[in-house]
Amino acid sequence: MASSEGFLTEEQREMMKVAAQNAEVMSSLSLSTSPKSPGPKSPTQTSSLLSEHHHIKAPGGGKSATAGGVAVRHVRRTHSGKFIRVKKDGAGGKGTWGKLLDTAGESRIDRNDPNYDSGEEPYELVGSTVSDPLDEYKKSVVSIIEEYFNTSDVEVAASDVKELGLTEYHPYFIKRLVSLAMDRHDKEKEMASVLLSALYAEVINSTQISRGFFMLLESADDLAVDILDAVDILALFIARAVVDDILPPSFITKARKMIPEASKGFEVLQTAEKSYLSAPHHAELVERRWGGSTHLTVDEVKKKIADLLREYVDSGDTSEACRCIRQLGVSFFHHEVVKRALVLAMEIRTAEPLIMKLLKQAAEEGLISSSQMTKGFVRLAESLDDLALDIPSAKTLFQSVVPYAISEGWLDASFLKSSGEDGEEPDKNDEQLRRYKEEVVTIIHEYFLSDDIPELIRSLEDLGVPEYNSFFLKKLITLAMDRKNREKEMASVLLSALHIEIFSTEDIVNGFVMLLESAEDTALDILDASNEIAFFLARAVIDDVLAPLNLDEIASRLTPNCSGSETVHMARSLIAARHAGERILRCWGGGTGWAVEDAKDKIQKLLEEYESGGVVSEACQCIRDLGMPFFNHEVVKKALVMAMEKKNDRILDLLQECFGEGLITINQMTKGFSRIKDGLEDLALDIPNANDKFKFYEQHARERGWLLSSFGLPGSDATPSVGAS
Prior knowledge:
Elements (H helix, E strand, L loop, with lengths): L9 H23 L10 H10 L22 E3 L5 E3 L47 H19 L2 H11 L5 H13 L3 H14 L6 H13 L1 H7 L3 H14 L6 H9 L5 H14 L4 H7 L9 H18 L2 H11 L5 H14 L4 H13 L5 H13 L1 H7 L3 H15 L5 H4 L13 H20 L2 H11 L5 H13 L3 H17 L3 H13 L1 H7 L3 H14 L5 H10 L6 H13 L3 H6 L6 H20 L4 H11 L5 H15 L4 H11 L4 H13 L1 H7 L3 H14 L22
Antiparallel strand pairs: 1-2
Helix pairs in contact: 3-4, 3-5, 4-6, 5-6, 5-7, 9-11, 13-14, 13-15, 15-16, 15-17, 21-22, 21-23, 23-24, 23-25, 25-28, 27-29, 28-29, 31-32, 31-33, 32-34, 33-35
């Protein structure tokens, strides 16, 4: 039957049957290579499947596909009946669906697609810097510390440090807190110490605190570059930590073994131990150095004491008054409460019963110790003369209060046996000494106002009691210590002038011995008294008022347990320090100390101008303009040295004119010659004939009456003269 009639021939039917079988075979091949199949088929397995169905016949005839045409595995019939070349691995060509799970094409995710899912985004590794926990900790603690300095809120700061965690970095917090405070005012230094005490045990343990301070010692050299007095400040922080019991005293010993001796850290440890922790009353001194844990100065404490006593007189509430005294936190200063309370009882007679009741209750509760009570009475007894000017009956009232207090049991009976606990008066009944003290206090106050040394010297000479010179020195320094740096500087300058004019070296030594013997009592009113006296001693040595050997003499005359011995030791340390002269001259902010240095330069220049042809009257006027008559011995010394160096005896005419006018006194002239005589050995190294020249100048001076008759005699302050025969 022909195909043109619309019927399939037998051959065509056979061909369609074979094609259907081939399609089933290809479908099974595709499934067998699918990822979801139990496992991929090997090429051997695939060919065996094909062999089961024999060879697919080509469309054009009954020949096998292997004999010619397209291989069966590369042929596919489309729905249109067309045969196309199949892609490898069964993927379709144009107009086909492609192979199952076809991933050959690059898929793109459209973020604007409503069905967009960010989870379908491919993973991408992004490089980032790994942060150091210590760096983060450092940034955090700086902000905590700055905020604390602004708010003074200890609880918030402690809470913030605790919340930071990272306890292994707490030593760094110690280091950062102290280093930041060191470069700030005393207020911040005190706040840092208070915070350390608050954090101790609760937030930061003792080992971490020790490690933090050790880190500070290791970095002391770097700190000293930016903070000039870093050594002293860090030493005070360590001393304060020891006093506050957050650092063990053994820390200094252990740290000294691990810190190089040449480092600033080693110097810090020495300063902490010798200047602070070994000083008399060191606990009170260290705690109050930056204003005290109560953030109050001495003047502020005195004002608070006066206010609470007046409030007590008005209210009569003894318990509240005791609570306020306790809240001040200045147990070592309770003698001030006693003194002011007694004075108030004298001023307001109706308040006396209340005051007696308060003092009795404070003593019974142990709020005011027996020693503080006694000190308060002693201080009032010493000031009765001045108090009597305002309260005429002061002495009578005091004499009635003392036996009452003893009978009530809140004042020790030994007070009656005391005959001057400050060691100042050999005999309190000596009316002449009492009047002398009253008068010299007035003289000293006038000097602090006028700065007139010649007038003060005339006033002392008018008193006519040189045997009391040592008492004057003690009173001068005691009054100066309770004032500003200006008065301290003026006191040192005055000592230098008095030593030349009317005070002997023995007077100076005796005065300092008396001052050191009463140092503990002085410290009750002047908290830093020990350090201040040490500076006065060191300054006296630098100014040639005392010789270094005089310090040994002073120390030997003190009792074995006297705290003044440590003060003398401190003075020696100050003198032995590097650049000691310059530092001690400026220890109270410069003042006249700077003027002394400037005066030396000016004296040298005016002498050079005069030697090169200057006029005597002009040179005398320049010396007068210096305004430092107590320092004219320097003019004499430099003039004699210049005469030796220049071989020009014309300078002696200048000294004659100055002496004739009274510009240079006989004491100043003698002092100048003594200084030259003491340094002749060194001077002879530069000027070989210095000894011969000095003999000539000494003879010249004696003939004209420039020198004291005692100059060169054995036992005098001056060295025996070679030219004296």
